[in-house]
């Protein structure tokens, strides 16, 4: 008996050590691969696509092989979009899903103009796209505090991820979602939100159709502002400014209002302004930020985050004013082009000055 036990140990111990070493090696390889993806970007494949309306489309992106880079709910990725004239534009799109171990990234996009329109044409199943690792600070400010989410149209995208993240944490505080859209087709994921609202006591869903009626106002939201609640806002230009001003006027503390910096790009508008930089003067078409105007003119500065964080796209306004997308204030001087929108004709300092 003793001899058999010794023989078994002689065989089992080396096998166990070999298996442990193999597992450790695989874990180290996975960590290294994740680190490389986090710094060099991702080459993802369009697994599936659907078009809920003529102007909206959703993409499911997968990596090969294995898991994608983990992310916080509310973060975004930068997608590199090849344009017909040979340029490559990078656009920020919020991730519309969340998982502790993501197998795919989901994007919901309004066709719009320029890069988003080009992506609408190009992004078909099996197409490869270059996508940055997830980034951004538009994340849950305090999971233990009540949260009110205000979405306009396609601005629902980051909130779907935030709701999934809170639903996975039984101790998380309640969430109220207000989603304002012009048509029923733009109320993306309305069935799943309605089901979750019916069965989960900590989540309430308040959709609103505004095609021929009044749009969402701060007064509609005030009843849901529990003490210590945070408000997160992702919408187009006009709705963002109206809600921001109304909520602050009603007494919401500024540090409890969180606005997605690139949300304005979700609803590009023709501003009717002239932009001058150096010797070039032009009138941009529909834009969601100053950097989009500069891209249309072929004079855009470098950029990375598209969320007002990295500062690479900073330019100097010598004459005219722009509106800061976070604070709503009129600004001039040194600004981050991704986070402001022209309000008047602008004269900008030439690059390098």
TrEMBL record:
One of its GO terms (biological process) is methylation. GO terms for molecular function: 2 iron, 2 sulfur cluster binding; metal ion binding; methyltransferase activity; oxidoreductase activity. InterPro entries: 2Fe-2S_ferredoxin-like_sf, 2Fe-2S_ferredoxin-type, 2Fe2S_fd_BS, Beta-grasp_dom_sf, FAD-bd_FR_type, FNR_nucleotide-bd, MRET, OxRdtase_FAD/NAD-bd. Gene3D superfamilies: 3.10.20.30, Nucleotide-binding domain of ferredoxin-NADP reductase (FNR) module, Translation factors. Pfam families: Fer2, NAD_binding_1. Residues 37-141 form the FAD-binding FR-type domain. Residues 262-353 form the 2Fe-2S ferredoxin-type domain. Its cofactor is FAD. Keywords: 2Fe-2S, FAD, Flavoprotein, Iron, Iron-sulfur, Metal-binding, Methyltransferase, Oxidoreductase, Transferase. The keyword Iron-sulfur applies. In the N-terminal section; belongs to the FAD-binding oxidoreductase type 6 family. This is Vanillate O-demethylase ferredoxin subunit.
